[in-house]
Write a sequence for this structure.
């Protein structure tokens, strides 16, 4: 048995690394992978660099801007989002609800009429009452037309379940809600405003998003790679790892997916085990391609609400930074979601994605594919269903009672950005520093 580190951190993704960075006490990190970074890793294939799907730094807090500037120094630049939607055979600017100019006039009319109806009959649509589910939330905020032409098909595609199964806690901040005046300006092609939390983003000039987790390593030490936590004894405050090594802890910070953590804890109460098993998630099949043609697109990423396209989003890695693809080429990432509710035929999907890229006019059948990389992200989005709140609360209450801080995107089981997990990692370090 090894002598205890006071604080053990499980997982060297962005949340675990940030926590260690701000800790003023003795700690050790254990990571099951062979590199740090978790979801923020980047892979190199034939001269192309691909992230585990698009990972852009939308930073709101000055404190975090300062942190990433200190960490990445000159290897960082800020750019303005070029995000679009492809539907009915044309591109409209993101967000759909504020930029419907150019769509067939019937679609524009249905969207405007539906929104007018909902905004002028607030009593009839009971807008004062909390919507019972995500589908109702969509109808209440956008009306029938927007629901039909974008909101429902896009979200059902992404979340893989009927939207009546989803709650609405996560929507605040993610989905922009323009005023009727702004919508009308957008319908006339006179939209001047940018909407949403992600108007600008930072991104490393060279190396892909993994440069960020790697940059922590000048300050964060005591990282043990290739060690997976396999068992936790709460009674002895002891963790066992995949190589048989055991270590004691005083405080445990875990960034591994919440149900996985609960599963490896010995003698877990039935109620907690049941709650964690109820947590649902969406996975993402991410196909990345390197194409022998430059300037394949002038966009950063595009949303695809329609069923006929397998992916809900496709983006252009080489437009985040030209260093991510060799000269004379372009690179693309595509995201297809799946879950237990909507399984994916992984044998066929790669071919279908390529076909759909051709159908959308992004590549042609003559384009030469120089690199192909599949990244299958099992835990991609926590699914906010009607059991969500109670299941997370039951699990977290139990863990906190046992001095375990379960944090990060899947540790806290929240729809969190990189900035959010940086905030969480820092907050936990501050709490632990004060104990
Ligand atoms: C499809 C997708 C797109 C995204 N796009 C963006 C974006 O554009 N902008 C943005 O800000 N955010 C984005 N995010 C969110 C961002 O990736 C996360 O918020 C952040 O990377 C989560 O970091 P984390 O440390 O919490 O988790 P992770 O990165 O998952 O780290 C957890 C670590 O724990 C390790 N681990 C797991 N089990 C064990 C075990 N038993 N023992 C030891 N180690 C273990 C894992 O290997 C991993 O390294 C996106 C996420 C996804 C899925």
């Amino acid at each position: 048995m090894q002598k205890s580190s006071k604080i053990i951190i499980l997982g060297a993704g962005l949340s675990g690394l940030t926590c260690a960075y701000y800790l003023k006490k003795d700690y050790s990190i254990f990571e099951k992978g062979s590199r740090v970074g978790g979801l923020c890793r980047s892979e190199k294939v034939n001269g192309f660099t691909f992230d585990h799907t698009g990972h852009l730094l939308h930073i709101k807090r000055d404190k975090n801007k300062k942190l990433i500037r200190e960490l990445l120094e000159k290897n960082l630049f800020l750019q303005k989002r070029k995000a679009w939607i492809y539907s009915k055979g044309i591109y409209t600017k993101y967000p759909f609800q504020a930029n419907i100019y150019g769509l067939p006039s019937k679609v524009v009319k249905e969207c405007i009429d539906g929104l007018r109806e909902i905004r002028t009959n607030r009593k009839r649509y009971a807008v004062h009452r909390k919507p019972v589910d995500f589908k109702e939330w969509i109808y209440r905020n956008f009306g029938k037309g927007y629901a039909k032409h974008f909101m429902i098909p896009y979200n059902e595609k992404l979340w893989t379940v009927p939207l009546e199964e989803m709650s609405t806690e996560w929507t605040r901040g993610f989905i922009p809600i323009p005023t009727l005046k702004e919508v009308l300006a957008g319908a006339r092609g006179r939209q001047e405003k940018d909407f949403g939390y992600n108007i600008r983003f930072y991104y490393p000039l060279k190396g892909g998003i993994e440069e960020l987790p790697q940059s922590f390593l000048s300050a964060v030490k005591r990282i043990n790679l290739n060690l997976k936590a396999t068992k936790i004894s709460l009674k002895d405050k002891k963790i066992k790892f995949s190589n048989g090594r055991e270590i004691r802890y005083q405080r445990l910070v875990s960034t591994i997916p919440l149900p996985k953590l609960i599963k490896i804890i010995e003698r877990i109460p039935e109620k907690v085990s049941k709650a964690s098993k109820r947590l649902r998630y969406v996975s993402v099949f991410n196909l990345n391609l390197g194409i022998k043609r430059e300037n394949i697109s002038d966009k950063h990423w595009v949303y695809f609400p329609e069923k006929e396209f397998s992916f809900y989003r496709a983006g252009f890695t080489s437009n985040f930074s030209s260093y991510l693809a060799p000269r004379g080429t372009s690179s693309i990432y595509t995201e297809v979601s799946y879950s237990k509710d909507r399984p994916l035929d992984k044998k066929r999907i790669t071919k279908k994605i390529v076909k759909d890229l051709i159908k959308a006019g992004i590549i042609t059948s003559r384009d030469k594919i120089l690199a192909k990389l599949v990244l299958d992200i099992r835990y991609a989005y926590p699914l906010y269903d009607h059991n969500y709140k109670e299941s997370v609360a039951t699990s977290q209450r139990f863990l906190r009672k046992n001095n375990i801080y379960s944090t990060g995107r899947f540790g806290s089981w929240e729809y969190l950005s990189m900035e959010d997990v940086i905030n969480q990692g820092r907050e936990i370090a501050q709490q632990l520093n004060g104990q």
About this structure: The chain has three domains: 2-34+225-278+387-433, 42-81+198-206+280-384, 99-188. The chain has a mean pLDDT of 95. The first strand starts at residue 2 and ends at 10. Residues 292 and 329 are 5 Å apart (CA to CA).
